[in-house]
Amino acid sequence: MISLTGSDTLFFWRFAMAERIVIIGSGPAGWTAAIYAARANLDPVVYEGEPSNIMVPGGQLMYTTEVENFPGFPSGVQGAEMMALFKQQSQRFDTRVLTEDIESVNFSSHPFKLKSSEGTDIEALSVIIATGARANWLNLPNEQRLAKTGGGVSACAICDGGLPGYRDKVLVVVGGGDSAIEEALYLTKFASKVIMVHRRDELRASPIMQERAKSNPKIEFKWNSVIIDVFGDKIISGIRLQDTINNDETDMECGGLFVAIGHTPNTSFLGDSLELDDKGFIGTRQSWRTATSVVGVFAAGDVMDPHYKQAITAAGTGCMAALEAERWLVSKGLD
Q1: Among 19, 150, 154, 225, which is disulfide-ready with 160 (CB 3.0 to 4.6 Å)?
Q2: Do 248 and 279 share a domain, yes or no?
Q3: Which of the following is catalytic: 43, 94, 159, 168?
């Protein structure tokens, strides 16, 4: 018979009381991680987040109308509907869901300590961070309204550019980096013309990307210009530009606006608990893995992916994170 001392009893009681796996975030990555973790009998709890003026539970897809490039939906699906289905599938396997934010974490000891927006203290044996990244916008009132209602304003050309509403129209891309050029080049497959609006007189993109854009007959440039207003009731009809040198204003008709000025990962609540890259994305210890700089903490989706930023890749990394977390828990006898 094993005799436990008082300190041993406290040790085992703390581990017994801790959540085996806490998933922070509720986009494709978070819900996929929950599905895999729940089917592995890890009894996951998902902190899906609280609605705010910058993010809502479900992530960026909640602002997306028609999703046509996610396998399994041959006729397309509304972004919000798809996220509801993801959530339902995770709850089918008894995933617990709390509509709270995780406001702070302490990964310096194990079990890990987290605090929710309701003031709840949580202990976790493993954590998957799937809080995503939010698109940077121009923060113009009509831009935001049309983006949220499917009115021809988007932050993802690959997601939305092929939709019928954008075909054979003049489309505008704002930005000057590699991502903006990738968006513009992609849109030339569908648009009659693509106009790139940039606040300076030269692009920030790599030379090869600049050459591709400048040599494409469908791409034009509006240099030294910023967008100060977006027109349109239900659908965008045009934009107002301001010259950054002389402040002159001009109006331009267009059938779509794509904002490509980067993304901000939702990692501020982490403080200095994990290693982040220079843009704030969570770093992983190995390529094609989800383990972070803290053993037992994993990252999935756009919060660790500054490159692809697609629902399908986010879901894939959610699967990876759940599998890696499960294997880590088993290896430590914590499952």
Answers
A1: 154
A2: no
A3: 159
How many Å apart are CA 240 and CA 256, to the nearest integer?
A: 13
Copy the structure tokens of residue 105.
């974490």
Residue 254 annotated as catalytic: no
Q: In sequence order, what are the residues at sequence separation of 6 or more whose Cβ sits closer than 8 angstroms to the Cβ of residue 115? A: 102, 103, 104, 105, 121, 122
User: Which one from 160, 254, 302, 305 is the annotated catalytic residue?
Assistant: 160
Q: Provide φ and ψ at 35, rounded to 5°.
A: -60, -50
Per DSSP, helices labelled H in 234-280 are none
pLDDT in tens, 293-319: 999 999 999 999 988 889 999 999 999
Is residue 159 part of the annotated active site? The answer reads yes
Token readout for 114 is 């987290």
The residue segments making up the domain with residue 194 are: 137-259
Residues 216, 271 within the same domain: no
User: Which listed residue (101, 156, 254, 305) is catalytic?
Assistant: 156
Q: What is the pTM of this model?
A: 0.82
Same domain, 35 and 128: yes
Identify the CATH number of the domain in which residue 240 sits.
3.50.50.60
